[in-house]
Structure formats: C-alpha cells, structure tokens
Amino acid sequence: MTGLSDSFQRPIDYLRISVTDRCNLRCIYCMPSEGVRLMSHDAILTYEEIYTIARAAAELGISKVRITGGEPLVRSGLPELIRMLAQIDDLDDISLTTNGLLLGRYAAELKQAGLRRVNVSLDTLKPDKFEFITRCRNKLSDVLEGIEVARMVGLNPVKINTVVMSGINDDEIPDFASKTINDEWHVRFIEFMPFAGEGDTASQFFSASDIRKRIELLGKLESCLPSIGNGPAKYFRFPNARGTIGFITPVSEHFCFHCNRLRLTADGKLRPCLLAEDEIDLKQPLRSGVSSTGLKQLIKEAVVNKPLRHHLAEGYIPKDRSFCQVGG
Ligand code: SAM
Fold first, then answer.
1. Which atom of ligand 1 approaches the CA of 120 most closely?
2. Ligand 1 pocket member 30 (CB < 6 A)
3. What is the pLDDT of residues 116-127, one digit of tens each?
4. pTM for this one?
5. What is the DSSP letter of 252?
6. From the CB of 29, is ligand 1 less than 6 Å away?
7. What distance lies between CA 39 and its chain's CA centroid?
8. Smallest Cα–Cα separation from 120: which of 147, 89, 93, 82?
9. CA torsion, points 165, 136, 320, 46, in degrees to nearest 10?
10. Tens digit of each residue's pLDDT (9 = 90 or more) over 86-118
11. Of 121, 162, 193, 324, which is best to mutate to test ligand 1, by the most ligand atoms within 8 angstroms of its C-beta?
C-alpha cells in the first residue's frame, strides 16, 4: 500500500459513505420544506457495491470510513454493512453520523458488528424547538435515549454535533457547554453553512469565536493537549470537565488545506469536495463489470481532481445537491 495523496500533497485517508438520501427528519437548514426528489432504489448502491468500493479504496490507502446519509439508520440492515466493512483489513476506523432517532434501537447491534464510534447531530435540548428545527414532533426524547444507549454499549466516543444558528439556538450554547461538565458529553459546535435552507440563511450565521465568547461566560476553556481527534475540530475543556468542547469552522476559518477526505454519494458518485459539484461516477462502471484496477483508477482520478479549497466565502454554493443528498 503506497497511500493516496492529491495534487496539493494532502494525504487522503478518509472516506465518507452516504448510504441513503432518505431521512426521518426535515431539518429547516438541511432540506427544503417541499422535500427533495428521492433517488429510486435502483439508483442507490447496494451494500455489496459499497463494500467493493470501500475495499478498493482501502487497498489504495483509505483507513477510515464514516457512514452517513440522509439518515443512515433508516436504511434497513445497516449493521450488515458495518459487518462487511469491518472485514476489510486496511480499514482501522468505522464510524457513523446519525440524528440519533433510531440509535437506541440499533446501537448494540452496530457495536457488535464492528462500529467504533458515533456522532449524533443535535441542535437543541428543548422539545418545542426540536420540533421547529426538525419539523418533527415528540422525537427529542428518542435522541437523548439513543445517546445514552450508545454510551452504555461502548460506542466511544459519542460526539454531539450542534449547528449553531443565530436567533434559533444560540441561546442554548451554555446549556450544551454545561453538558460537558454535568454529563461528560463531548459537544462540537459547528458553524452553520448557508447551503440549502430557507429564507435569509446568511443572517443565521453565528461564528465559532462568538460561540466561544458565550461559553467563556461560564468559565475559562483550556486547550486539550495533546490535540485530540483526527478531523477539523479544535478541542477544549473546562478545567473540571470530563467532556470536551470542539469548534468546527467551515466558514470563518476553513480547514481545506488539511482536508483528508472523499465522499461517496448514495447513488455512487465519488465527490472530492463537499462544496464543489465535481463528481466521478462509480456506479455505472461497477454495474458494467469494471475490474478492481479500473475502479482504483477512478478513485485516483477523484483524488487528483480534489480542489484546493471551497469558495463559500466568495459566495459560491453548490446547487446540484442539498446537504442530505451529499452526506454531510
Ligand atoms: N442524518 C445524519 C445526521 O443527522 O447526522 C447524517 C446526515 S446530516 C446531513 C450530517 C450533518 O450535516 C448534521 O450534523 C447536520 O447538522 C449537518 N448539516 C446539514 N446542513 C448543514 C448546514 N447548512 N451547515 C452546517 N451543518 C449542516
């Protein structure tokens, strides 16, 4: 194995795999209210096809995969896919990003299948606001229960991803931060990207530096040293806390120069960058019997095509797919 690196000498070792474009929530910032046109079942990669792509990618140097969506847990038999991926020797980390609604039901089975850790997206701790943000009723308790079950079965760490939106949930920043002290949560605050939501999304932006100012009203934050995690988050903690606080700054301080990832969409397109429209189709070649060497060649092509950085700051927003269709 020689390892993959792109035209800018960035090592590429991380593949995010979207297994479905379907979701059991309708978050205001992720999905338009009228919904999105769903892919047909036939258009979506089978688990065998995903396995074949992941194995080829791993043989080229991908060592970490994260399963995402849509909502990955709405696709039936997901533990079976985890079990298949866990058999790939060169993959040493399999993780999942979920809205947590079905996590309580599946956490034990996922852990047993080989899942290491899980990120749960949760933007509010208030039931009425949960309903407003997700356009779904009475589901917050399921998410909170899912988080607890995931921790109990040993998915470690469970990280909570919170997208902060001005005027919507910025008042809850201290509540989430306090959870790192009282409940040992690992909370990551993510800057809202003006992507596919409704209305004046630009005015909903709330910067990580403003989030930090709100948190420091509760107490001083210390850097987590040596630095933890292998992604773009910068981690801190309160002196007396077991949990951590992370900041992810795709807008105010992009981390493209350290980007190590590729994305596979549910319909089999390999996307070198979340925020650029270029894609390479793997599904058709796979269904036409491409060889393992041919498949690897296509993966290398996507790596070579990886752009240096996104252009959100210049106002460029990809229009081809919404967040839930790329696999955020
Ligand atoms: N359904 C899964 C979930 O909820 O985690 C996986 C897919 S979801 C698209 C992945 C992540 O993208 C979530 O944490 C969500 O909050 C985040 N996301 C979606 N739209 C976003 C936006 N405009 N800005 C920042 N994060 C966004």
1. 5
2. yes
3. 999 999 999 999
4. 0.95
5. T
6. yes
7. 20
8. 147
9. 130
10. 999 999 999 999 999 999 999 999 999 999 999
11. 121
